[in-house]
Specification:
The complex is a heterotrimer of chains A (about 375), B (about 290) and C (about 160). Chain A is of the alpha+beta class. Chain A has 13 helices and 15 strands. The termini of chain A are far apart. Chain C has about 160 residues and is α+β, with helices and mostly antiparallel strands. Chain C has one domain: Sandwich (Jelly Rolls). In chain C, about 30% of the residues lie in helices and about 30% in strands. The complex binds flavin-adenine dinucleotide (FAD) and iron/sulfur cluster (2 copies).
């Protein structure tokens, strides 16, 4: 059989059992494969060696304040909706050493930033690609490049997957980020019963496919896949009207809803930690007891943390009202002025993982009520 | 992924020294008032020392290993090349560690960061410089610039307030500035009867002279509450909102609009500020706890 | 104390009185005198009866309060063309609450308070202008006092914090 010609833009069919070969190929090419795995009752992104470690046969149920993995009754790999973790933990690690210093006639650096492994991210959803693109805008600017992020991001391989089964808190269709892949991936999967349709998104993706037993998909399966992707748009658990953002937020900074929400929100920062676009960070120095060595770390921070806005003279945002307002007005408001896009991709994580079920798709309409402008 | 593509291909990548602060030696420490001193720093790398430039109103992140970084304005003359001055008030972790520095000790520096007082656009104007407390150091470089180019500016009035007479900074220089035709009005919040000067708050100094709003710009720095009242007085005298420049202060960790801390609405104070035309921050200025 | 009579021309030249009619300016001139003062001289003392409303012509006057065990504290200075001792024409503050002391040599215009009140009662046009100015002075002082209360330059690390 003559080898199938593959180009960027081609769609080919990979038999389901050969997913393992695809992962093996990535590893062979030097990528560290990170993918979905069941852990702590949810789906986590962890190093995986093969498809057997993936959450095959699982689906997830989510509501405000709830995430549960249940059996899907089928043998699909990607019928779950992502859990609390997102890919930001790979490119923008929750904790990372910026440098180590040793006091030795002045402060001398010890070692340097370790070269990052080349990561292959397995099972990246459309909204997650949108989130990565948003973080690219924050960390890879023309006037500032984050060295940690860039090192990890630049060689990463993205094995994406179309969402056929959106979750209860998803609203990516409203945000225009999903559930269908559009760009930003090396390979894009659509999971059917017996095959994966594989959309070749880049030359790197094409390379990985070479030598794998792919075939030309027939028209029937292509039609079915299209139907499934289209149907997914109608299965979103949530919706959000974004037509009047960011104004509805930035012109309502004194809206009574902020006070109301502050009675519920515990300022626990969960929403910012699970959000795949939130990028705030803090630095910490850790010294040896005798003060001759110090390690400078960068850690995730959150606008919900009291220390976030301390300054000489007091706290700029001394209460939950002002912190929640900062979060939402940034995410769905001033983000647009800063980066040209809103900071929300509609993944629903902040709704799912809020312990008190605060739902941004309800907050925006609430702020729209009695709008004073 | 346009951003990534651009960055992948650009040769020089600006990470702002995040992984590698530059080291500088303390060459002189000048006590200015109780709890405040000026630290004169010289880069250990002599090439850097020669190449380093800043504009009036910009700041550096000073790094004390083991303690962390603090944003400190540069308070020296932009034309003075070998050493740079930072006037520091000892209030917290990093600044108290700075207080323990001795001559010859080293400090990490990243910078300069931020916007500057737009002195080049203000030529021909009357300037009112209204400062209070630790708000005067960020304006001193602008004052040096103006002194050097005195003829290019109109009337210059410095309104300067401090808590008590002993909290006044740079007292020994003020006479020098007066000689260059800068009208200096000093006031303190409280004093004993040895103080011959004015007592009262900075904004009330506006009551004591007339200004022509069509040719006046106001530059102000100090506690935000003071800035608010200075702006109030300037607006009451019809100075246009885009001719009032305010220097804002927020918690900041990176200096480059990355860590998120210093946001005011759409702005990152560290890169879009600290110096803003009031017209830019006006929508957010009176929003409580924003 | 050496009080000197006041000419109508002097009253006319004072910006504060510019919006008074000539007739009213004459009335003010008749009830006013000039009160020169010297550096360190007490112009009035805490507890004195308030029988004069002053306007600074030149020099600088400090308002002081004596705090037991802490001595004299200067809380405000008054500059030329500003009013001093406005309590003189109110009923609620019949006595001086602060001491006024010359910071340097200077001169005050001293307006007889009982006479001024009487003239204002008899002629409400004059009364309105005078009270309007006094209200402005009080509003300005109040604003300044509030700002002083904030103690905005205090050491932040010594303050109690919230959040
Ligand atoms: C653009 C810019 C320019 C500046 N220029 C100067 C300058 O020229 N000179 C100068 O002296 N300062 C300047 N500052 C201010 C200086 O950066 C801050 O005062 C900085 O916080 C000092 O750092 P620190 O580590 O010493 O204080 P921190 O330890 O950060 O403490 C600062 C204040 O916050 C309080 N605080 C911090 N964390 C907490 C907490 N968890 N709980 C309760 N309270 C807390 C502290 O008590 C203290 O009052 C500038 C700031 C900016 C933004
Ligand atoms: S704000 Fe919420 S829904 Fe939007 S991207 Fe962040 S976590 Fe997802
Ligand atoms: S909105 Fe919910 S998740 Fe976010 S800080 Fe408040 S309580 Fe925590």
């Amino acid at each position: 059989m003559a080898e199938l010609p593959i180009n960027v833009g081609s769609v080919v069919a990979l038999p389901k059992p050969r997913l393992d070969d695809l992962l093996a190929k990535l590893r062979e090419k030097g990528y560290q494969t990170i993918g979905p795995r069941v852990g702590d009752g949810t789906v986590q992104y962890q190093p995986i060696r093969g498809a057997s470690e993936m959450p095959q046969g699982y689906t997830s149920e989510e509501e405000a304040g709830k995430y549960r993995l249940v059996s899907s009754g089928n043998s699909r790999y990607f019928d779950y909706t992502p859990g609390a973790q997102s890919w930001k933990q790979i490119f923008f690690p929750p904790r990372i050493t910026l440098f180590d210093l040793c006091k030795n006639g002045g402060w001398k650096p010890v070692g340097s930033l370790e070269p990052s492994p080349r990561y292959a991210l397995v099972g990246v959803r459309p909204c997650e690609i949108a989130a990565i693109k948003i973080q690219d805008l924050a960390f890879l600017r023309t006037d500032f490049v984050d060295p940690v992020y860039q090192e990890r991001r630049k060689n990463a391989f993205i094995l994406a997957v179309n969402c056929l089964r959106p979750g209860g808190t998803c609203f990516c269709a409203s945000m225009g980020t999903g559930p269908q892949l559009s760009s930003g991936y090396d390979l894009g999967l659509t999971e059917m019963d017996d095959v994966f349709l594989v959309d070749v998104g880049s030359a790197a993706g094409k390379d990985i496919l070479s030598g794998l037993p792919v075939a030309k998909p027939d028209a029937a399966i292509m039609g079915k896949a299209k139907q499934a992707v289209d149907a997914a748009k109608t299965k979103m658990g949530r919706q959000l009207d974004i037509s009047d953002l960011p104004d509805v937020l930035l012109k309502n900074l004194d809206h009574p809803e902020w006070e109301a929400i502050s009675k519920r929100c515990m300022s626990c920062a969960s929403c910012t930690l699970v959000c795949p676009t939130c990028f705030c960070w803090d630095t910490q120095d850790h010294s040896s007891l005798n003060g001759t060595e110090t390690e400078r770390e960068r850690v995730w921070d959150s606008c919900f943390n009291p220390g976030y806005s301390y300054q000489a003279g007091g706290n700029t945002r001394p209460n939950v009202r002002s912190r929640y307002r900062q979060w939402l007005t940034h995410k769905l408001g001033s983000w647009k002025q800063q980066y040209g896009v809103l900071g929300c991709v509609g993944c629903g994580r902040c709704i799912t993982w809020c312990p008190v079920k605060i739902d941004i798709t309800e907050e925006i309409p609430a702020l729209r009520k009695e709008t004073r402008s | 992924m346009t951003a990534l593509a651009a960055v992948r291909t650009s040769a020089a990548v600006n990470d702002g020294g995040l992984l590698k602060p530059s080291w500088a030696e303390v060459v002189k420490i000048q006590p200015e008032a109780e709890g405040i001193a000026t630290y004169w720093l010289r880069f250990q790398d002599s090439n850097l020392s020669k190449a380093y430039r800043f504009l009036p109103g910009q700041f550096n992140m000073l790094y004390m290993p083991g303690y962390g970084e603090a944003a400190i304005s540069i308070s020296s003359d932009p034309e003075q090349r070998d050493v740079i001055g930072h006037t520091v008030r000892f209030v917290g972790n990093v600044t108290r560690a700075i207080n323990r520095l001795k001559i010859g000790d080293v400090v990490g520096i990243r910078g300069p960061f931020g916007t500057h007082w737009p002195v080049e656009n203000l030529e021909g104007k009357d300037l009112i410089i209204a400062v209070g407390g630790i708000g005067i150091p960020p304006l001193r470089p602008a004052i040096y610039h103006i002194l050097r180019n005195r003829a290019k500016f109109g009337k210059i009035t410095l309104l300067y307030g401090a808590r008590t007479p002993s909290d006044l900074l740079f007292s020994s220089e003020l006479d020098e500035w007066r000689k260059s035709d800068i009208d200096i009005q000093i006031t303190v919040d409280r004093a004993d009867s040895n103080w011959q000067g004015q007592v009262g708050v900075v904004p009330t100094l506006f009551y004591k002279f007339r200004l022509d709003p069509t040719r006046t710009a106001v530059l102000t720095c100090g506690p935000e509450i003071m800035i608010r009242f200075v702006v109030f007085e300037a607006l009451a005298r019809r100075v246009p909102t885009n001719q009032i420049y305010v220097s804002m202060e927020r918690n900041m960790k990176c200096g480059q609009g990355s860590c998120g801390h210093c946001q005011i609405g759409p702005y990152f104070v560290c890169k879009d500020g600290p110096v803003f035309p009031f017209s830019a921050v006006e929508p957010y200025f009176n929003v409580e706890d924003f | 104390m050496d009080f000197q009579p006041v000419s109508f021309e002097l009253i006319r030249s004072i910006p504060l009185f510019a919006d008074l009619s000539i007739q009213h300016q004459k009335v003010i001139a008749e009830m006013s005198s000039i009160r020169p003062f010297q550096e360190n001289e007490e112009i009035f003392h805490e507890g004195d009866t308030s029988d004069c409303l002053y306007l600074m012509l030149d020099g600088r006057v400090a308002l002081e309060i004596h705090i037991p065990n802490r001595g004299r504290s200067r809380i405000l200075t008054v500059e030329p063309q500003e009013m001093l001792g406005w309590s003189g024409i109110t009923d609620v503050v019949p006595r001086r609450t602060l001491t006024a002391r010359g910071v340097c040599d200077g001169r005050l215009l001293c307006i007889d308070a009982p006479k001024l009140i009487k003239a204002c009662e008899q002629d409400h046009d004059l009364g309105f202008v005078v009270m309007h100015h006094v209200a402005n002075v009080i509003a300005g002082r109040l604003m300044a006092t509030r700002m002083q209360l904030l103690d905005m330059f205090s050491d932040p690390s010594s303050e109690a914090r919230h959040g």
